[in-house]
Design brief:
Blueprint: E1 3-5, E2 12-14, E3 16-19, H1 23-27, H2 30-42, E4 47-49, H3 58-70, E5 78-83, H4 100-114, E6 119-124, H5 133-145, E7 149-154, H6 159-172, E8 179-180, H7 190-195, H8 197-203, E9 206-209, H9 231-234, H10 236-244, H11 252-266, H12 270-279, E10 286-289, H13 294-301, H14 303-309, H15 312-322
Parallel strand pairs: 3-4, 3-10, 4-5, 5-6, 6-7, 7-8, 8-9, 9-10
Antiparallel strand pairs: 1-2
Helix pairs in contact: 2-3, 3-4, 4-5, 5-6, 11-15, 12-14
Bound molecules: NADPH dihydro-nicotinamide-adenine-dinucleotide phosphate.
NADPH dihydro-nicotinamide-adenine-dinucleotide phosphate binds near residues 19, 23, 49, 215 and 290.
Length: about 325
């Protein structure tokens, strides 16, 4: 495993980390989740990502349970949560969003579910247009001063709002966000590479990037339709979103299939190549992996070697074949 600092902070996260979305507490059983955390830990992964909203809190419950079961040393791993969407199936108005109250309550809920005394990383899962940014920054600062959170950050906030959070923090001597959690993969590059470009040097922001495989699209397994035993096969709404992508992202399945053909030509697993490409970006602090079984995780860990061994020309070809 390689380790990278989270932006300008002193925290060294594994360059590959493990997330719980659509798997822990929903798509996979407790035994498979335990096997994944154990395999990740054995291969040097020290960061496990979660959110209050994943499987309505069940993802955090399962992760907390298996981490306790495996007796991982609390000073050797980092765990995150995210606040915004609530953990109830149908949250009441106060049970969601980025108000001081919900940021506070959600943190304590995550601590209970994950069975830890503090969160290493705590993210605002999206912006909340109904709450002043200063209120959220103050709430995060309070949790840090109480020792309940070590680093706070944002996820998919527009760069201008990240900048506003920093300005407010500086003005009040509050803790500023240390990291962003954006989507980043060969089919979705603009925010990390262009919109956030000024934030890295100016504010020392790190990034914990998500969906390096575009939910599995970049493995090439969706080229001949949607297999029933796959993430998109289990969720038709998600399938539509992942396949269509955002406006201007073109035919994402065709782009992914060209990429899978290139990986075959290079003799490497498409998943490992896609993740290796993310690792090549120096502004990426850690790439969050998702996996529904250990074999996938092991294949994806091959990205570390590919990032070191493949030359620039191979990655340039990956960019060319996935261009819109
Ligand atoms: P990926 O894009 O890597 O998708 C992972 C999924 O792809 C797996 O669950 C599996 O699904 C499939 N897969 C993985 N490896 C392979 C392989 N080698 N061969 C074939 N299929 C494979 O990452 P995620 O979308 O899961 O994102 C990673 C993490 O990022 C999440 O767990 C979460 O913690 C975080 N995240 C954060 C978000 C945010 O808003 N902040 C949003 C989304 C994710 P299957 O086998 O079921 O097809």
């Amino acid at each position: 495993m390689d380790y990278r600092r989270l932006g300008a902070s002193g925290l060294a996260l594994s360059a590959l980390s493990l997330g719980a979305w659509t798997t822990f507490g929903s798509g996979i059983g407790r035994g498979a989740a335990r096997d994944l955390v154990a395999a990740a830990w054995d291969h040097g992964i020290n960061f496990f990502d979660n959110a209050e909203g994943y499987a309505n809190g069940e993802a955090e419950r399962v992760m907390g349970d298996v981490i306790a079961d495996l007796r991982l040393p609390r000073d050797g791993f980092a765990v995150s949560s995210k606040v915004m969407f609530g953990s109830a199936a149908d949250p009441l108005p106060m049970q969601r969003g980025l108000s001081r109250k919900h940021v506070h309550d959600a943190c304590h809920g995550a601590l209970r579910r994950l069975r830890v005394d503090y969160l290493d990383l705590y993210f605002c899962h999206r912006p909340d247009p109904d709450v002043p940014v200063a209120e959220t920054v103050a709430a995060m600062d309070a949790l840090i001063r109480q020792g309940k959170v070590l680093y706070w950050g944002t996820s998919e906030w527009p760069a201008a709002l990240v900048r506003e959070a920093h300005a407010v923090a500086r003005a009040h001597h509050w803790h500023a966000p240390s990291m962003e959690q954006p989507q980043y993969n060969l089919l979705h590059r603009r925010r990390v590479e262009l919109e956030y470009a000024p934030l890295y040097a100016e504010f020392g922001m790190g990034t914990t990037v998500w969906s390096p495989l575009a939910s599995g699209l970049l493995t090439g397994k969706y080229g001949a339709g949607i297999p029933a035993d796959s993430r998109l096969g289990r969720d038709a709404d998600l399938a539509r979103m992942v396949i269509e992508g955002e406006e201007g992202e073109g035919d994402r399945v065709a782009r992914a299939q060209r990429f899978a053909a290139l990986a075959a030509e290079l003799g490497v697993a498409p998943a490992a190549l896609a993740i290796a490409w993310c690792l090549r970006n120096p502004h990426v602090s850690t790439v969050l992996l998702g996996a529904s079984r250990v074999a996938q995780l092991l294949e994806n860990l091959g990205a570390l070697a590919l990032a070191r061994e493949l030359d620039d020309a191979a990655f340039a070809r990956a960019e060319a074949v996935t261009a819109r």
